[in-house]
Design brief:
The complex is a heterodimer of chains A (272) and B (74). Chain A contains eight helices and two strands; from the N terminus they run E-E-H-H-H-H-H-H-H-H. By secondary structure, chain A is an all-alpha fold. Chain A has a two-stranded antiparallel ribbon. In chain A, helix 4 runs parallel beside helix 8 and helix 6 runs antiparallel to helix 8. Chain B contains two helices and no strands. The chains are: A mainly alpha (272), B mainly alpha (74).
């Protein structure tokens, strides 16, 4: 909780109107090793990372443990989630071949969903996807998968047709080829990672600023008197954004999975 | 003197990010607006249109995201 309120010590409640963190560099670094096993240091992010993985495994295990004709209520929720990824994303976007990629898409969807929802889980309040390493790693996995499929299914034609597209008028081919090359091999993984990261950072920062400022100002009531009331609108706005962040968390998990499926599809059906 | 330059750099980076957000903002507006029109005309296609809309948003958003990263790097 002491990390939630970033600026609690530095915040000058007499002069400031809202408490801002002193340094945003923290967002890109793993700080404060809690305990370490050999050379591996466990920070709060890493612990939550493993917690998210266990939550996903637990959800799938307990949701699908008994396959009955009429599943339990919890089982229905898990089954409809899996059905959503299988039919709503994999089959819809990739087509009949999509069945091969359902396990991967399900894994990243559930992991990112749980990781994002940590942002609005009371007492955790920290989305693990707001540390650059985790979305970057997930994006690299997707990148490796779609590049390998592209080269595996189309051999060298994958690269040749990208830089020299046959369906484009000859005068524009080099330009379109250049744009496609940069877009497929550089911008795709980059934007995939940064989109998730930026959305979660923005949400986490907004919640921290508003709720943190609200708490700090209201708790400083004895010292600063009536000025403490400025904490009430901050706190109310924070609660409104709290609801909005639940939507953003689910939507970003969906968009990450959807775009992974689209990139895989563009390698599977390369002609289009 | 040093401190002033640091403050100025931060301010210029902020302005740059603001400018970078204008284009994608307009673009996402166009994408979503047209998607809503399409859904209103053909409600039975709403599912497909929604998926395509998210894709369009995702590609348009890329420019704003690059601006966001450059803001931190600057």
């Amino acid at each position: 909780m002491d990390q939630l309120i970033l600026a609690s010590e530095e915040c000058d409640v007499v002069n400031e109107v809202i408490c801002a963190p002193a340094d945003v560099k923290e967002l890109f670094e793993f700080t404060d090793v809690i305990f370490s096993i050999g050379p591996l240091g466990f920070t709060r992010t890493i612990i939550l990372f493993f917690l998210a993985a266990f939550v996903v495994v637990g959800l799938l295990y307990f949701g699908l443990r008994k396959r009955r004709m009429v599943p339990s209520k919890f089982g229905v929720v898990i089954e409809s989630l899996l059905d959503f990824v299988k039919n709503g994303i994999a089959k819809d976007i990739i087509g009949p071949e999509g069945a091969r990629y359902v396990p991967y898409l399900t894994a990243i969807f559930l992991f990112i969903l749980v990781g994002n929802l940590f942002e609005v889980t009371p007492l955790i309040n920290f989305p693990i996807t707001s540390r650059m390493a985790i979305p970057a790693f997930l994006a690299i996995v997707t990148y490796v998968i779609f590049v390998f499929i592209g080269f595996g299914k189309n051999k060298f034609r994958y690269l040749a047709d990208t830089v020299w597209p046959k369906h484009v008028p000859i005068g524009l081919r080099w330009l379109v080829g250049l744009i496609e090359l940069v877009s497929i091999f550089l911008l795709r993984p980059f934007t995939l990672a940064v989109r998730l990261f930026a959305n979660m950072v923005a949400g986490h920062l907004m919640l921290t600023l508003l709720l943190g400022s609200g708490v700090i100002f209201l708790s400083a009531f004895p010292e600063i008197g009536l000025k403490a009331l400025v904490g009430i609108p901050w706190f109310a706005l924070g609660l409104g954004i709290y609801l909005f962040e639940i939507v953003v968390s689910v939507l970003q998990a969906y968009i990450f999975t959807l775009l992974s499926a689209v990139y895989i599809q563009s390698s599977v059906h390369f002609e289009h | 003197m040093e401190g002033n330059i640091e403050v100025l750099k931060g301010a210029i980076a902020l302005i740059g990010y603001g400018l970078a957000a204008v284009g994608p903002g307009v673009g996402i507006g166009i994408v979503v607006g047209n998607a809503i029109t399409a859904m209103a005309r053909q409600p039975e296609m709403a599912g497909t249109i929604r998926t395509t809309m998210f894709l369009g948003i995702a590609f348009t958003e890329a420019l704003a995201l690059i601006g966001f990263v450059l803001f931190f790097i600057a």
